[in-house]
């Protein structure tokens, strides 16, 4: 059982309309995480949310690349980049949090992916793996050393965030039943293996206790 203390923060990753059914980049059953996450939020004193926040014409959008389709890939200056449908565009309803998410308790909202030329999956770094969001510094200044992650999608933004957090020395758990995956070409199994190998604990909401 994962315990919650004053050093523990809940980080809710990208529970936004475009990642839920009917959205531009819908994750299967993505909306089903909302009640579980809302229950978790009531148990944590420290709650942080992330929000995908792309400008129009972002370089990770397939529409920016001639003769390219969503879910293909291109080489960017920072490495291979999956191409996505246009999604979570700044100021649109698709970028809003799911309407049933109890996000008002959040003490911090980290917006990511706002730089036009680089995508950002992780809550900690852009996809070049070096440009920081500032979240690690915030957590350290507040003495938050244990992190519990949930949200969308398990195999991309949640996993990237968990792996970076572990690499930075935080104690990390991912609540798998309060997360959903895209599972692109086996990406979920690969992400879960990487997280386990990095020391990330894969747990369930029923095992979280204050």
UniProtKB/TrEMBL annotation:
Protein family membership: Belongs to the isochorismatase family.
InterPro entries, A to Z: Isochorismatase-like_dom (IPR000868), Isochorismatase-like_sf (IPR036380), Isochorismatase_Nicotinamidase (IPR052347)
Cross-referenced PANTHER family: LD05707P (PTHR11080:SF2), PYRAZINAMIDASE/NICOTINAMIDASE (PTHR11080)
GO biological process: pyridine nucleotide biosynthetic process
Gene: pncA
Protein name: Nicotinamidase
Residue ranges of every copy of the Isochorismatase-like domain listed in the record: 8-203
SUPFAM superfamilies assigned: Isochorismatase-like hydrolases (SSF52499)
GO molecular function, one term: metal ion binding
Keywords annotated in UniProt: Hydrolase, Metal-binding, Pyridine nucleotide biosynthesis
Catalytic activity, EC: 3.5.1.19
Keyword Hydrolase appears in the UniProt entry: yes
Pathway stated in the Swiss-Prot or TrEMBL entry: Cofactor biosynthesis; nicotinate biosynthesis; nicotinate from nicotinamide: step 1/1
Stretches that traverse the bilayer: none
